[in-house]
Design a protein that fits this description.
two-stranded antiparallel sheet; little secondary structure; elongated; about 15% helix; 1 helix
Amino acid sequence: MGKLKLVVLAGVAAFCFAISAPKATAQIAVQIGPPPVCPYGYFDYPPYDCAPYGYYGPEWFINGLFIGAGPWYHGPSHFWGHVNNHFDHFDGFHGNYPHRGQHWSEGRPGRVSNFHGNEMRDGHGHSNLGAAHEHGGHPR
């Protein structure tokens, strides 16, 4: 009988301790900062690396200026634009990517010669290739 009293007393003490503990509140602050400065735009998923010439189609540029992607997207609502995902390292591209702050060296932004898009993206990390899934941080 003594063991049962001890178990009940421990249970009551644990219950009283649980209801008297202060509630923890989480506070998350995310500071995004300015968009990456990339000559041909940047990918719409973290870490927002610079996209190479030929990844984005002409509708992603207004007067040669990239309309943005990810948290810095500032294009029209319900926008879907063409991309050529063969220039994405998640899809097997092994070429060089421009660096942040680099000036364009190939064609002018928004004037990709012989552009061949094979996917539509919305600027927020969503693709028309089916349900979104995580691929090493790359939403699809």
